[in-house]
């Protein structure tokens, strides 16, 4: 670690090593190899994030929150490997070698662009809370105190208003409703709860939404034409896996 801040190759008097004394970066060839290795490590960290998310998504809906033992062991192993590699990247960045630091950022950015570019974006550094902005295109349905949904309708023009008034688009209290109870994974705070409510309420045909944060459950009342898979897909797009209880 350089006490003078970031330095470039050839500027430091001390011999730089990449994690182990058997890998000194004492030549241009070795430094280039160190940069490539560091870049690949960052790429792999992002790839593991994607693979773990797909693993949970594959089994979370079909078999509940518990993965089959083999896949659970694989998921735990991938998490351990990802954590270890993340700490390795941190140690490499702490060498204050400019080439290696750039390689860390470049590897993570490259992996993100390949695997996680379309993943939900956190609203802060806390990865548990997904951004509320990702649901803005769905409008902002009003959820009343009794759980009923007042569907969001954009301001209607003079041409569209007669269609609405004429009953071509309507939700009636007398319509027969079906109820689905969903197990929603990944809810850890009120922001997550609000995200789930908004995602479900934005589905066309949903009449009521109730979310139980401690139990990670949601009860949805909707018209019969809305299937459970439609609700599950809406939650997955909002960053939460779900399955029918």
Automatic annotation (TrEMBL):
<keyword id="KW-0187">Copper transport</keyword>
<keyword id="KW-0472">Membrane</keyword>
<dbReference type="InterPro" id="IPR007274">
    <property type="entry name" value="Cop_transporter"/>
</dbReference>
<comment type="similarity">
    <text>Belongs to the copper transporter (Ctr) (TC 1.A.56) family. SLC31A subfamily.</text>
</comment>
<dbReference type="GO" id="GO:0005375">
    <property type="term" value="F:copper ion transmembrane transporter activity"/>
</dbReference>
<dbReference type="InterPro" id="IPR036163">
    <property type="entry name" value="HMA_dom_sf"/>
</dbReference>
<keyword id="KW-0813">Transport</keyword>
<feature type="domain" description="HMA">
    <location>
        <begin position="178"/>
        <end position="243"/>
    </location>
</feature>
<protein>
    <recommendedName>
        <fullName>Copper transport protein</fullName>
    </recommendedName>
</protein>
<dbReference type="Pfam" id="PF04145">
    <property type="entry name" value="Ctr"/>
</dbReference>
<keyword id="KW-1133">Transmembrane helix</keyword>
<dbReference type="InterPro" id="IPR006121">
    <property type="entry name" value="HMA_dom"/>
</dbReference>
<keyword id="KW-0812">Transmembrane</keyword>
<keyword id="KW-0186">Copper</keyword>
<dbReference type="InterPro" id="IPR017969">
    <property type="entry name" value="Heavy-metal-associated_CS"/>
</dbReference>
<dbReference type="Pfam" id="PF00403">
    <property type="entry name" value="HMA"/>
</dbReference>
<dbReference type="GO" id="GO:0005886">
    <property type="term" value="C:plasma membrane"/>
</dbReference>
<feature type="transmembrane region" description="Helical">
    <location>
        <begin position="31"/>
        <end position="51"/>
    </location>
</feature>
<dbReference type="GO" id="GO:0046872">
    <property type="term" value="F:metal ion binding"/>
</dbReference>
<keyword id="KW-0479">Metal-binding</keyword>
<keyword id="KW-0406">Ion transport</keyword>
<feature type="transmembrane region" description="Helical">
    <location>
        <begin position="71"/>
        <end position="94"/>
    </location>
</feature>
